[in-house]
Amino acid sequence: MTFPGAARVQMVMSLPVCVDIRTALPGRELTPLLDDAFSWLRWVEDTFRPGVDGGHVARLDGGRPIEGIPELVEVTRRCEELSGETGGWFDGSEGERFDPMAYVRGWAVERLSRALAGAGAVDHRVTAGSGTRVRGSSAPGRRWRVGMRDPYDGVTTRVLFAHDAAVATAGGEQYSGDGRAWVCVVGPDLGAAGAYAGAMHAMGTARARRFARELAARLPYQSMVVGADGRATSTPGFTGHGVETRLAG
After folding, report:
1. pLDDT value of residue 57
2. Is residue 241 situated within a structural domain?
3. What predicted TM-score, i.e. pTM, was given to this entire model?
4. What Gene Ontology molecular-function terms does this entry list (predicted)?
């Protein structure tokens, strides 16, 4: 099936990033939109990449003030807020070094999604690693289908249907946690969804399930927590996203 629009995939922020626009715009508009999208993501990578001598994050980590970069101030403050919300399970650091990339990847995609919609590309999906942001429709009258993959073996176990949602998964070797446990969070902002998912996975399954219920009671974020035994529990609103279960095999 042929769809209108255009798509592009590039490695940015150490992740494969796919920008898929389905709005029927002329090619003379689509190409600059995709060019600008990846220019923004490369700027984010250059600005927030940790461990670069003389870089912005390295200067901030060393206690030196940053002037003229409002995005860095915004991200730093939001990481502090999320640390407080999660009881320190998410804190925007790697060891003793400030490293906001776990939040920044989702934050950058979220800002990109808003920019695309503002430019007229109202139907799009942006995927960066285990995070996905969708808006509009994949085709006229059709919601986007977002697969939720087990981060350990890559098997799609569930499919979410949405016109407007951010979906983040945490698990696998890059996170600490108990056994093969993993977490999926759905909400309105990919940066926050990714931070909540990472925090819940680090907490361990029992604490994560309690936190997921508390989070859903006060904010529009719904979660699914999969324990090491494969048993999945979801907050009440999670199934409201039209989740379809797929069996492997």
Report:
1. 64
2. yes
3. 0.89
4. transferase activity
